[in-house]
Amino acid sequence: MTSRFFMSDSESESESSEEEIINEQTGISAAAYVFSEDEEDTKRIVRSAKEKRYEELKNIIRSIKNYKKNKDMSNLLSSFEDLCRSYTKTLPVVQKEEGGKTPRFFIRCLAELDEFIQTVWEDKVGRKSMSKNNAKGLTTLRQKYRKYAKEYDTDLAVFRENPDRADSDAEVEKEDQDDESEDENNLMDAATFKKESSVTKSAKKFQKGSDDEEDDDDDSIDWGPDSDDETSSSDGGGGMFPLREKFLKKTTDRDDDDLKRKRKRLPRENKAKDEESDDDGGWEKVKRGSSMPMEKPKMFGKDDEINVNSVHKKLNEIMAARGKKGTDRKEQIELLHELLNVARDNTLGPAILVKVQFNIIMSVYDYNPSVSDPMKVEFWEKVVLKIDELLDMLIADPELSIGEQVTEETESLEKPPLLVRGCVLTIVDRMDEEFIKLLKACDAHSNEYIVSLRDEIRVCAIINKLLKYEEEHGMPSDICRVYLRKIEHLYYKYEPRAAKQTLGELPTTDDTSLAEMDRLCKYIYVRDNTDRLRTRAVLCHIYHMSLHDKWYEARDLMLMAHLQETIHHSDLPTQILYNRTMVQLGLCAFRHGNIKEAHNALLDIQSGGRAKELLAQGLLPQMLECVYLVSAMLIEIPYMAAHEFDARRRMISKSFHHQLKNSERQSLVGPPESMREHVVAASKAMRNGNWKQCRNLLLNDKMNAKVWDLFHEADRVRKMLGGKIQEESLRTYLFTYSHVYDSISLIKLSDMFELPHSTVHAIISKMIINEEIMASLDEPTSCLVMHRTEPSSLQSLSLQLADKLYNLVENNERVLDQKPFFTRGVQGGGYRDRREKGNWGDRRDRRDRDNQNIHRRDRCGRKWYGQEYHVKKRI
Amino acid sequence: MAEYDLTWKLGPFLDRHLVFPLMEFLSVKGVSEFCMELVPIADVTLIFQIYDETDLQRAKLELLSSTNMVDFAMDIHTSLYPDQPATTELPDRRSRVVSELKRLQTETEPIFKIFSDNEVQKQLQASRDHRTLMQFLVDNYDFRPEMLDTLYSFAKFQYECGNYSGAADYLYLHRGLVPGSDKNFLNGLWGKLASEILTQHWENALEDLNRLKEFIEANLTTSPLQALQQRTWLIHWSLFVFFNHPKGRELIIEMFLYQQPYLNALQTMCPHVLRYLATAVVINKNSRRAAMKDLVRVIQQESYTYKDPITEFLAHLYVDFDFDAAQEKLQQCAAVLENDFFLVACQNDFIENARLMIFELFCRIHQCISINMLAEKLNMTPKDAERWIVNLIRQAKLDAKIDSQQGHVVMGTQAVSPYQQLIEKTKTLSFRTQMLSINVEKKATARYSEGPSWAVSS
Predict the structure, then answer these.
(1) Number of Cβ pairs < 8 A linking chain A and chain B
(2) What's the whole-model pTM score?
(3) Among all residues of chain B, which has the CA nearest to that of A816?
(4) I need a surface site. Which of A147, A610, B104, B128 has the fewest CB within 10 A?
(5) Is the pLDDT of residue A768 over 50?
């Protein structure tokens, strides 16, 4: 944890180191500099191997000091081991440069450590109160130290004779620091942070980080993260010195006051820097020129020539470690940042900058080892910034092109046309995915979620930027990908203007989200070669059109896309998108009064009671279920009335029947409370032809609040629903009570159901033509006259027998041909349709026909979604 | 009726030459005001608006500009601008066209010499296979394969000049000799169809139409989009044939409504053709009942993209059962039909059949209708209506009686006895079972022909 927090810091700190160099060279007053904006194009000075090594040592020493303060033995131990290791590495340099004389600062550290160990060891009370880890660490440390210190006995003795002598040369100021300077240091740090766009954030992060570190340190034996901490803190410190030094030299009293004031304003716990304290005088002596190169991270040797090639080589070197087991990912990111700064300082051209920047982003992505866990918000924000910068760079330079198709060999970083290998799309894709993951990780009810959601604007801005870039430079396949990204941020958003356009209140030429979707999707339809992008684009397109009440267009697109057959084979997110689209389509159909289509579209989602799962959505408004149940009611109730005595009645909607049965099972049915109870009560009222009660049960304040008000244009939906209830109640009434009447006056009916005469006439005509009721109209008296031709029981039985025989033959044929059911169904259906129809009440025959109407493929070959399409969607 | 004029919608899918008849028709009808956007198959896109007769002429001139009918163009030019002499451009083109014609004629002369030979004529009649024919020509008459291309370009040139019958003849020869894989084969077919249409040889045109259809369906190399485009063209071109050929009215239903790819093309590319399909279904007495259901479904599906009085009439009648609205639409239909190039001939048929449909539906719904009301719905005087009904009853088309005292038509009882129904139901069963057993037998013998034949005993 700690290291992650630190990582985000390191950027700012390394920047500060770079800035301080600028300072040295340009001679801008430090105070002014601290609060000025970044300046990036100064030259970088190359450091020698000695400096590099020494700095590493000093970093470790600093952390040792830190741990000493905290009495964190286990970390102290590990740092000590690091120190030993690192010094071994430094030995050749020491031999060469110092003539084999052990550097004084190293000895000083050893001596101090020795003192420290002794004091701690003697403090028996304190030792007892130590944690187990610490105690163990202390023991081990003591042993190791003794062993190690033997080699330096003489040096130590010399040192002890004259401990107060300042360390030689440039090292002085690094070793000797007092509390005052520490404060300055902190201040400096804070000031540097301020230059970053997110001052407060990083400051907070830092603080948090060091807190965490503390917590961690107590119990961690694990070495990996520890070393992370050390590097980061030491690195940061390394960058800090010269700045501070520089600063102090030029600082006047006024400046000091000023800074102190600032410090108060930015109070910050900075334990990581504690060890940097020494006395003022120590570093006042230092000459500015000599100290400077020491501080730089050891990227290049002093004499190395910095050019594109060397930077590129270095980059490859760093990146080669990527993905390897022992790689310190954090360090890698830091190194890359350094490299970026080097490249920038030496103005090596945009190509290498882009390349390094690109690799930084990749490394930040790498940082999170788990694929399923979201990145840290801070990291993500950083990536967003970086990507933004990268895109700006790309857009700013038309000479530069970046792409996957560029190979290592064809890459051209120096001469135009500049070619860089890499794919901006991928990193933006990843950024977007991480954003979704972040959102998913939030609690949808929390404030955190809403805050994260605000970042979507930034994501969209980046996607737009990328889109602009790709439209100019990209290949069609890439443009398709960006378009889809954009579409996926667009399709679910309701734009009131687009809705108005649908209603004809805005001219169709206006540029709304609908037009935008249309443009993007059509491009993908034409250019895309992968099925997945197209499928998703189609689904988003349908979703968007459904959302804006473009029912016909949405329906046609759904039918033409033929997705029903293939959607099972696609990946889960696409299947979920398909389900969601289906739901939107269903809701859209409902708003348009196409009850049957609404029912069919929602059936699959609702039937298993797994709606949440199928839609991969935890929060589902009741609206969805309600719309489904009401649609089912409007279809099922008249159907039930028509087939009341039919033995083989088929259920159209299982879940609707389930609700009905539930309520029947109750011994006492109270007034409806929940949405379902309302629908069930309404269904019962409708069954009795009591349309007014049915309507009142569905359209009342309670239901409005729960369901209907969630629709846009709720009034239109309510009005449509009221009308449907009237019509279907009339049909139910006729089915249920027609056998009681000899004739019914149409005028009476239209009074009863408050429907216009023509509507009643049309409904009844349709029923007669479809042979749903056996009756005919008597035009002069405007009556419906029933034809009663009830067959005798023998007759009806023989008719049933004939039906069964018919089925038998059909089954036999099917078995023989072994044709799939649907083909047969089509043929059978066609056959029946053309058959002469008996015109008295053979209800079974009708029923079969009804079923086929639902099941049959449309004549025009557009297969209707819904009933015949039972997807086993596993999510 | 300008709002229902389809010429501008049809134009883009037709050849330039095929647009002439439509425009000719429009100028006869004196369509005073309509907008027209023509994007003929030729790459040139012409967008122009016609407001009166002279504009129509100008449009024709535009159309002619990329054809070789220079004389025709000059005629129109003089009638359009009588005071201006023809621009130099036209005579120039004329001379160019003539010289081109001469050149092609000399090039094709040896070809026609070969084909005028009696022996070759015989071979042409007898031979079915282009390869043997070709071989025969190459062997005996010094025929070179390049000549085929010359022949094709000459035919094209003739067509451009307006000599359609000549073009048809040459293309006939060309088709006989060229393999299906030739680059010009499909173009030749289209050219042949256009020539036949323009020379009004409907029998041949139908033949060509079917050939073209087969070719399009069999050709798997074309992309779906191209196939769709070609089908759309074919749909439009075939209108000429279907509404002129005696059998066309049945064929159009078969092709547009029941051939899946064509129905798809119709729905996606040109829902306006629904008008022609609907008319064809209405005037086709035989298959009306079956086709109507499917047609109505298509009309409903496309109701948001296309509607005109004819489709609305059917929708009102069969979806809403709103007889008054249907009646209103029927009156509009008459005007639309009168101004439609293809449908003008079926106007009376349509009105008569539409009436019959309304009446039929009425009878199915009602048991007693007053003649006055009926007359109103059918847009007839009560006397005419009564006469009409009497005729229907006499022709045994209607089981009804007239109650002349009250002025009612009383329908006969429609109920079918259960016995009849039972017979109806089982009639086909025995036949189907028989077929089944025969099939089983066939399969069994096929499978066990070498083994023991214990499977089937009968």
Answers:
(1) 111
(2) 0.63
(3) B440
(4) B128
(5) yes
